[in-house]
Design brief:
The protein is α+β, with helices and mostly antiparallel strands and about 170 residues long. Helix content is about 30%, strand content about 30%. The chain has three helices and seven strands; from the N terminus they run H-E-E-E-E-E-E-E-H-H. The chain has a five-stranded antiparallel sheet with strand order 1-2-3-6-7. Strands 4-5 form a two-stranded antiparallel sheet.
């Protein structure tokens, strides 16, 4: 397994729609393992293909926060939301591609998602709470949308300027 560099906003790849996964290859399986390792190392609870420059509809997530509970790493290929609750939930979101920036985003409190697993089987699950927020956030990445796109233009510009500065500082190292 390899830790992959995470793209930092602004990067044009983060604003592009990812391509559907048409076949499960050895490389895709390796990328899924790398993505999980990268996500845990960051540390984060979700990561989408475009965040590591992989323009495929793949996300990984694990929202288990309890230290005593076993981890639940998930790999979702071509995930799609098939149902959303009318009830909404506001959660302070962050993003590995927008480090150290957080903002409240309101999304459906529960969603049903269908995806293909690494065995090529169709899966479906209803997510609530943090899991629902995370899966929607990661699917947004596959569609070229970031959590800051839910904010006012002013807040978005402020965060974007901070990220540009961070990228310049990192480039000097």
């Amino acid at each position: 397994m390899t830790l992959r560099p995470i793209l930092i906003h602004p990067d044009p790849r983060l604003k592009k729609r990812a391509d559907p996964v048409s076949e499960i290859t050895k490389d895709l399986r390796a990328a899924a393992d790398d993505m999980l390792q990268t996500m845990y190392d960051a540390p984060g609870i979700g990561l989408a293909g475009p965040q590591i420059g992989l323009m495929s509809r793949i996300i990984v997530m694990d929202c288990v926060k309890d230290k005593d509970a076993p981890p639940r790493p998930m790999v979702l290929l071509n995930p799609e939301v098939t149902w959303t609750s009318e009830a909404m939930n506001t959660y302070e979101e962050g993003c590995l591609s927008i480090p150290d920036q957080y903002a409240e985003v309101t999304r459906p409190a529960e969603v049903k998602v269908r995806w293909m697993d690494l065995d090529g089987k169709t899966q479906e699950e209803q997510f609530a709470g943090l899991w629902a927020t995370c899966v929607q956030h990661e699917i947004d990445h596959l569609n070229g949308r970031l959590f800051i796109d839910y904010l006012t233009a002013l807040k978005r510009q402020l965060i974007t300027r901070k990220m540009e500065k961070l990228k310049r500082e990192r480039a000097r190292l």
